[in-house]
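[09:14] KT: can someone run the structure on this one? pasting the chain below
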Amino acid sequence: MARIPIIAGNWKMHKSLGESRKFVRALLPLVQDFASVERVVAPSFLALTAVADALRGSPLKVAAQDGHWEASGAYTSQVSVAMLAPYVQYVIIGHSERRAYLNETDANVNRKAKAILAQGRAPIIAVGESLEQNEAGETVSFVRAQVQAALDGISAADMANVVIAYEPIWAIGTGRSASGADADAIIKAAIRDTVAALYNSEVSDALRIQYGGSVKPGNMQEFMSQPNIDGALVGGASLAVADFAALIEIAARVKG
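[09:31] RB: done, C-alpha cells below
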C-alpha cells in the first residue's frame, strides 16, 4: 500500500516569534512544489498562531508540540487540544523529552491521543527505548508496550489519522542514529506488527511510521529507502531552512 511520506520538524524550545515567521517564509518557496510529501512544522506555543497565519492557504501544515486532553479547566500553563484545533493539523505527543523531564505517562499519551482525534486532528505519537533497554535486548517488547498503551480504546477507523514516530532515545540530539535497516526491523516488529495484532493487516499497512533521532541530509536517504519508514520526525536538522528543505527533497525523491 502506498503511504504518503510525512516530514515533521519539531523545533522544541527554539526560535522566537519573529524567527519563526522568518523561517517559514524562507522555507515555503523551497518546498512548496514537493506535493508527494506531507510537510509539517511544529513551532513553540508562543509562535504557533503566527506560523499558522503565515502558512494559511499554503501546502505546509502546522503541528503543536503537545496538548492537554481536557478542553478547559484549572491546569495552569497547559494548552488544550480544543484551543489548538483552529491552528494545527497535528499534535505531537509522547516525546521522550516529555516522558523523561515532565513525567509524561503512557496513560496520559492515550488520553491526549483520544482528545486529538475527537477534535478532528491527528496525533503524532512518539515511542522509543533508552540505550540501556536497547543494549539489554528489550527494545521490541518496550516499544510494543508503549504502542499498545497509546492506542488503547482507539478505533480502527480513527487509526487512519494516527502517525507513530519511532525515536530511540539514545539517538535524539546525540549525533548517533540507528542504521536504516535496524530502525526498519524494529519498526516492523514493534510497531507495524503490533498494530496488525491490535487491529488487522489493512490498518497496519496503512499506518504511517516516522523515524526520528539525529536525522540529517547525510543519512536521510538511508532511512527513506526502508520499506516500513514513511518519513521523519526531525529535531536539530529542522532548525535550518536549507537542511529541512533538503530532507523534504530527499523524501520526495526516494518515496514520491
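[09:33] KT: thanks! The beta strands are 6-10, 38-42, 61-64, 90-93, 122-127, 163-166, 208-211, 231-234.
[09:34] RB: yep, looked fine to me
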